[in-house]
Structures are given as C-alpha cells and as structure tokens.
C-alpha cells in the first residue's frame, strides 16, 4: 500500500517532529507533504525520501512567519493531490487534517490537539485583541473550516486522554488514544558548558501558552537557580523579566540537553500540555517533575512518586509546590524521589510501543 504522511509545517524541531520520524521508521518510503518547508530549520526532514510543500513555499518570507499562515492553511492543504495513495496519515495540531482524500484512499489523523488558537487556547493567542473588524470574520471562518476539516479523516487518533476529550468537545468525534513515542535521549557527550550545581530546569518553546513567565516570576521571588532551554517569540520579553539567578541556553541538541536533564534538581512545567514529552524525558533521567495539575501531565506523572502537582496556574501556587519539594526529606538514594521508580514510569511511553500500536491500527483498517 502506498502511504503519504502530512504535517502542518516543516520548519522547526520539537515533540511532534519525533512522531514524524517514528512514522518514517514504520513507512520509510512515504513522502512528507506539508504547507511550508525550511531546509535550514528542519534538517531532520532530510530523512524522508521526499518533502512536498505547497505552492506557497516559493515565497521565502512565508516559510518562518507563522502569523501569516493560519489564514492560508485551508487552501494550502486542499491543494495537495493524494489520488495515487492508499493511506494518508496526517499529524496535526492545525490544518493538515483538512487534506481531501477520495475512496479508496484511507485517512488516519494523529491529532496532537484541536487547533489551539481557535479553541482551547483562543484567549491566550488573542489576548488584548477585541476581535473586531477584519479579525473576527476570519477567525469565525477558520473555526467553521476547522470543524469541516476534522470530519474528513476516516479515523481520529488522540495523543492523550486530554486531547481525546478536546476532540469530542470541539469536533464531536470519537477517537482512540495512542501515546506519542519518547525515545531515550542520547546521553553522551555532555557539553562542558552545562551549569554546575543544583538548579531547576524548564525545557519549552518560549511562546505565550507555555507560561514560562510564571516560572520566571516564581524563581525571581525564590532566588533559586533556574535554567531555561528553548527559543520562541517571547524570548526577549522573558529575558527582560529574569533576574541573575535565571539563565537561558537557547535550542540544544539532544546530547547537550541530556547534560541539563542529568544535573537538574527537578523539571518545572508551568503550562497545560496536550501530552508533555519533556516530562517523560526528565523522568527517563530519574528526575522529578513539578507540573501544573491539568492536561497531559496528569497522565504521565504519578503524584508523590514521580512528581508534584500545583493546582492553580499562578505564581503563588507554583512557589508553594517548589517549597514543598524543597522541604521533602532525602530518601535512601540521597534524593527526594526514588529515581528507579521514575525511570520505570517513563518506559511506558517507548517508541517501540508507539510503533506497535500504530501498525496494529493500520493492519485492522477495513
């Protein structure tokens, strides 16, 4: 069976891109269709036999200007032709699910989340905007199209129970859950510039809904060392907020990131995640996770065994959780949590498990 893989935009590296590479291992001959493709920012995509962007990709200014793309997404994905394929797999948190297929082509959508800026995080993306004038009708149109697009796949697969609930709420569709793959991070070599000593760690894209600002405000008050790994649109704003006890290290390779996971005291997750890949990564190193008690983190973290939850997405609530962690006595391993229990929990989300479950799904298609 001829297979095609579709993804929203191929111009960055993150958790979703790991899903694509795992699918590539299952279907090595499948090309990757997308809206835009930046070879410079998505070197991982060279693994695919072919990357096929939409017609808009010839305009360089659009490739990395995310704010321009939402309004164009419907036509970009509807322009792709899948008439020669037996199976189309869309991996999406936005518009890739809206590709048009005709029988006998089968379409499986691996949904990372319903489109955030239209539904679950609408208030964050449009904060301070009244949606008057030209914006309101555009958002209204995109919501209508998004609902239509969500009914095009033959099968919907959610990355977590959190996302499954959103799919039901916003699209009124049933879905099954296949947790995404979290492959062990390369542990050597460790970069010599890794911060020495005890510090807390944030690993995140620096964008509004990730709420890295909460972590910065909390650690500004606590005066405890915090390392932030990641880049994004809010980078300059967040750096201006941070005091001297907070350090930024940009985007790192897996081997570099491993050093920070290994030496951190705990990972801090102030955001509501669809799944929470970094929480699994941190636990694979035996590290505790201090997380907001909502979203995918609830499916990954075992409270009191592999992490601590804080109930409100506020500075005060996060500070209380960090103080609770700091006041915990050290256990028999000299740490506050049993690292072997934490590592065992992380193994529930292996790449081998993902590949088996996805292949089983494909084999059982009508």
TrEMBL record:
GO terms for molecular function: glycosyltransferase activity. This is Glycosyl transferase family 1 domain-containing protein. Keywords: Transferase. Residues 196-332 form the Glycosyl transferase family domain. The lineage of its organism: Bacteria, Candidatus Woeseibacteriota. PANTHER family: GLYCOSYLTRANSFERASE WBBK-RELATED (PTHR46401). It comes from the Bacteria. SUPFAM superfamilies: UDP-Glycosyltransferase/glycogen phosphorylase. One of its GO terms (biological process) is lipopolysaccharide biosynthetic process.
């Amino acid at each position: 069976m001829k297979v095609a893989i579709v993804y929203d935009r191929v111009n960055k590296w993150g958790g979703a891109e790991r899903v694509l590479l795992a699918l590539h291992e299952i279907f090595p001959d499948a090309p990757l269709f997308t809206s835009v493709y930046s070879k410079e920012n998505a070197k991982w995509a060279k693994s695919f036999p072919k990357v096929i962007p939409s017609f808009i990709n010839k305009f360089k200014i659009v490739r990395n200007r995310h704010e321009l793309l939402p309004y164009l997404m419907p036509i970009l994905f509807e322009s792709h032709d899948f008439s020669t394929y037996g199976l189309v797999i869309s991996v999406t948190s936005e518009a890739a699910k809206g590709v048009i297929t005709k029988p006998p082509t089968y379409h499986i959508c691996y949904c990372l989340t319903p489109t955030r800026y239209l539904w679950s995080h609408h208030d964050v993306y449009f904060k301070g905007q009244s949606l008057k004038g030209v914006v309101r009708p555009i958002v209204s149109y995109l919501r209508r199209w998004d609902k239509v697009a969500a009914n095009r796949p033959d099968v919907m697969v959610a990355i977590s129970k959190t996302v499954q609930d959103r799919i039901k709420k916003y699209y009124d569709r049933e879905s099954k859950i296949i947790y995404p793959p979290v492959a062990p991070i390369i542990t050597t070599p460790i970069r010599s510039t890794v911060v020495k000593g005890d510090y807390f760690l944030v690993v995140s894209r620096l964008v509004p809904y990730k709420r890295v600002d909460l972590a910065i405000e909390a650690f500004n008050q606590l005066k405890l060392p915090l390392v932030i790994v990641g880049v994004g649109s809010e980078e300059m704003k967040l750096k201006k907020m941070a005091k001297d006890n907070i350090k930024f290290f940009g985007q790192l390779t897996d081997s570099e990131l491993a050093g920070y996971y290994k030496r951190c005291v705990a990972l801090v997750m102030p955001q509501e995640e669809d799944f929470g890949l970094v929480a699994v990564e941190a636990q694979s190193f035996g590290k505790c996770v201090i997380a907001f008690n909502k979203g995918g983190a609830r499916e990954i973290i075992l409270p009191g065994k592999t992490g601590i939850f804080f109930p409100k997405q506020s500075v005060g609530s996060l500070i209380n959780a960090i103080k609770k962690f700091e006041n915990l006595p050290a256990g028999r391993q000299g740490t506050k949590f049993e690292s072997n229990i934490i590592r065992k929990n992380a193994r529930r989300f292996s790449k081998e498990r993902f590949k088996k479950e996805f292949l089983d799904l494909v084999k059982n298609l009508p």
